[in-house]
Amino acid sequence: MTLKNLLTGIESPADLRRLPRSDLPLLAGQLRDFVLHSVSQTGGHLSSNLGTVELTIALHYVFNTPYDRLVWDVGHQTYPHKVLTGRRERMGTLRQLGGISGFPRREESEYDTFGTAHSSTSISAALGMALAAKIKGEDRKAVAIIGDGAMTAGMAFEAMNNAGVSQAGTQADLLVVLNDNDMSISPPVGALNKHLARLMSGNFYTAAREGVKGVLKNAPPLFELARRFEEHAKGMVVPGTLFEAFGFNYVGPIDGHDLDALVPTLENLRHKKGPQLLHVVTKKGYGYKLAEADPVNYHGPGKFDPAVGLVKPATAPKTTFTQVFGQWLCDMAQADDRLVGITPAMREGSGMVEFHKRFPQRYFDVGIAEQHAVTFAAGLACEGLKPVVAIYSTFLQRGYDQLIHDVAIQNLPVVFALDRAGIVGADGATHCGAFDIAFVRCLPNCSMLTPSDENECRLALTTAYRQNHPVAVRYPRGAGAGAAVSTDFAEWPWGKGVIRRQSTTPADARGTRRLAILAFGTVLHPALAAAAPLDATVADMRFAKPIDTELVLELARTHDALITIEDGCVVGGAGSAVGECLAAAGLAMPLLQLGLPDRFVEHGDPVKLMSLCGLDAAGIEQSIRQRFPGRPTLSAVNG
């Protein structure tokens, strides 16, 4: 059977399980090649998926999926899983509007048992599934597949701590597969480790272990001595003592690309009771030399030619907001030695590579631990330092309690640089920064700044840094209007917006309403485009909190209706702040609030998604005309 025929004959894991084990390495080669060429056509996560090909095959081969539950942590490494579970023909639609997601989604497939995209949730979810099976009397298995990076999060250890104890007199039959692709906690993988893994997962070892336990339980001192001896003996050859302390039986490490080791070890563990942990070692980008050598740049590439690899564009791309932040961070750190930079495992994504190189003593990567990142920043601020937390908008949600209790209540001067605010695009609802304006502006002591372009972003960051209370600055992924960025440390006047376009329509022009658009953030630019044919005034509000009350009330007095625009949720967002301002002043007037709808926004091209949400120029103009019908064009008004 040829390589091509082997994969095309698999429409579900049931087909996979009919293959002889000897065919699995051949299948792995084909699956890896398919993933490589598929991602090269669509863009998406690559290094992580190339690294999980054999592990994915082995899991579906051994476990009776979907009856047995596989829970993938983060889920960016599930492309091989999607291919083997009936979605091979749809991989060409990956991360596109109307296509399949780049992450597991329950509504997409019965094999996606739990929706993920943020890290460190798999053990908790799989534990819930395992205990549900116990309660319902079902003999199904639950497997959590988690990376060593995701293991740095407190939630993973909270789940392990819970899984290792008896629940109502029973323990969950849970398998955690630790996919170690960084070699960060692993000794060299070789024949000895493979032998130990198979030995410790086998029936002889388990039977002997339990038999000795039964004998020695009648002599507690000897039992405790034997338990400690076993722990330390295993600890000398494998890094499993920590997991054993949580109540897990540790097995490994084994080579995650060796199907002859993976399959029999998983078969042994499938029949074990109680919490089990299998430690496998994989290599990101495995099988594609360019990705193996540079897994970071091949983590989430766009379209490329696999034969050539990634190439620099012929023309330099526009400066991104992330790059503006990275340059500002270095410049401000040079000017102020109190500045410290913090990231929860997103050095590259948040633009902190250069800062790390230049200021290593003031750079802190705390791992995937957003809660800790926020409180750690609070501790630094207590001692007179000026922490800047570079964090994605949706990731700050994970540290919200800490933002309230540890930063806001204590009114500490922490700057939150919120990257990926608003529509993000191909990563979908899990990464869409829709809620930051709403959840920050409702907090006492906290402010929220919304720059409209790259230079305004630098001004906003400097303005935020100079305050003595918590301030968040939100900016989108990618480039903006292309504004030239200054190199100084100029600031905004605190709490003040600016007029960017003034209506020329007379107040009594044939009964025409005078409109004012109040824009928050980068939606200023489509707002300006929409305002031209409507002859509307446009204000760049700059601040979602504190709202420029003086400007809002002035626009209310000189216009017949106000329109607010933001690329965040309408419910509780900046438009709500304007409404509250009018209500406090006792003003009743038409107010149209435009923003992201009260639903989760799907994955797809950001430009298309903005259009579908009515936040491009055409959509803004259409919404305004629908709310205020009969409004003439600018030429008709001036004619």
Report on the architecture of this protein.
The protein is α/β, with parallel strands linked by helices and 639 residues long. The chain has three domains: 65-284, 3-Layer(aba) Sandwich (Rossmann fold); 321-474, Thiamin diphosphate (ThDP)-binding fold, Pyr/PP domains (Rossmann fold), CATH 3.40.50.970; 499-638, Rossmann fold (3-Layer(aba) Sandwich), CATH 3.40.50. 41% of the residues lie in helices and 14% in strands. The chain is built from 27 helices and 17 strands. The strands form three sheets. It has a seven-stranded mixed beta sheet with strand order 7-6-8-9-11-10-15, sandwiched between helices. Strands 1-2-3-5-4 form a five-stranded parallel beta sheet, with helices on both faces. Helix 17 (370-382) runs parallel beside helix 19. The chain is globular and about 85 Å long. Mean pLDDT is 90; it is low at 183-189 and 635-639.
Please give the structural blueprint.
Elements: H1 3-8, H2 13-17, H3 24-42, H4 47-50, H5 53-62, E1 69-72, H6 79-87, H7 122-136, E2 142-147, H8 154-163, E3 174-180, H9 191-201, H10 203-216, H11 220-237, H12 241-245, E4 249-255, H13 259-270, E5 276-281, H14 289-293, H15 321-335, E6 339-343, H16 353-358, E7 363-365, H17 370-382, E8 386-392, H18 393-396, H19 400-408, E9 415-419, H20 436-441, E10 447-449, H21 454-465, E11 471-474, E12 498-501, E13 515-520, H22 524-534, E14 537-540, E15 543-545, H23 549-558, E16 561-569, H24 574-584, E17 591-596, H25 606-612, H26 617-627, H27 634-638
Parallel strand pairs: 1-2, 2-3, 3-5, 4-5, 6-7, 6-8, 8-9, 9-11, 10-11, 13-14, 13-16, 16-17
Antiparallel strand pairs: 10-15, 12-14
Helix pairs in contact: 3-5, 5-13, 7-8, 9-13, 15-21, 17-19, 22-26
